[in-house]
Amino acid sequence: MLVTRARWSVYDAQVSKLTIDEQMRCVYAALQRLKYGRSTVDIAGELGVSRFMVGRMVQRARDEGLVEVRSVMADPIDAELSHVLADRYGLSAAYAVLAPVGGGRQIRSALASVCARLLVDAIEEDDIVGMTPGRTIIEMCERLESLPMCDVVQLTGVASTDEGEILRAITAMTSAVRGKIHSLHAPMLATDATAGRAIAAQPAVRRALARMDALDRAIVTIGGWPDASLLAAQADQLGEMERLVGRGIVAEIGTTLLDAQGTAVPALEGRTIGISEQQLRSTPQITAVGGGPGKERAVLAVARSGYADVLVTDAATARFLLDHS
């Protein structure tokens, strides 16, 4: 679990209706309650007031600006923004990462770091964990020193013609775990349905696809259409981008394409190699990760879709989601 610790500091309020003595008593009550964890009954007995009065004193100290809470989490996460985001979209958890100012690469690194911590915290012995071979997940795996004994299933083929990128994806996942790796040595998008069936029929691919029925949890990247998705780039190379964008596609999660409202769009039937929509919905816990310039609408679509249980994104994208909820 990620734990928020709080520091408390005292400073003079510039404008206050409290006397100096009243300010001191309120601050003392707040520090005793919030910093040292004493019960309101104990504090009330010491100060000679009711426990309800202690509660009002603590609240008054905060309202007057006499005490303040500062997050000093090791991971750069906006806890308040995260809580509001999870509540607004009905997620079991959300993480609004305070990414450094810069381009997509810096944001991707910040998200990967948080995802690595989340995976270490969540995974259990003998879990079957699905991972998409996206760039954020690759970087996440490279940050992991070790995980409990578990099997890892590659959830999609690789949406890249770069052999080095394909090898990096598989190597990163292999080095992170001590269990069995079910790799998909395949492209994510076949040229046509006939080619898709032929690839899916290969014994190793067939076994990996079947293993996706038994996932305990999965961590998947969010692809932003048209300019922030490797799958979209692959579709563009095949001359199909205009057709797919015309169908309203703004995102993909796994191999499932989504429109702006988070509704699945069946546009590449039989051609994508990876986890199906049904398998995605049957997975007990899905952590979706994505953010940065060009992915705002995609992350919004995934948040609306109901596929994700946990969402990891950057703080700017989180605020975009709240503005468009």
Q: Supply the CATH class of the largest domain.
A: Alpha Beta
CATH topology of the largest domain: Rossmann fold
Major β-sheet annotation: 9 strands, mixed
Strand content: 5-15%
Count the beta strands: 11
Order of helices and strands: EHHHEHEHEHEHEHHEHHEEHEHEH
- Radius of gyration computed on alpha carbons: 24 Å
User: What is the second-level CATH architecture of the largest domain?
Assistant: 3-Layer(aba) Sandwich
Q: Percentage of helical residues?
A: 40-55%
Shape: elongated
- Roughly what is the average pLDDT, rounded to an integer? 87
Number of helices: 14
Low-confidence stretches: 1-15
**Count of the separate structural domains:** 2
By helix and strand content, what is the structural category? alpha/beta
Report the end-to-end length measured between terminal Cα atoms: 27 Å
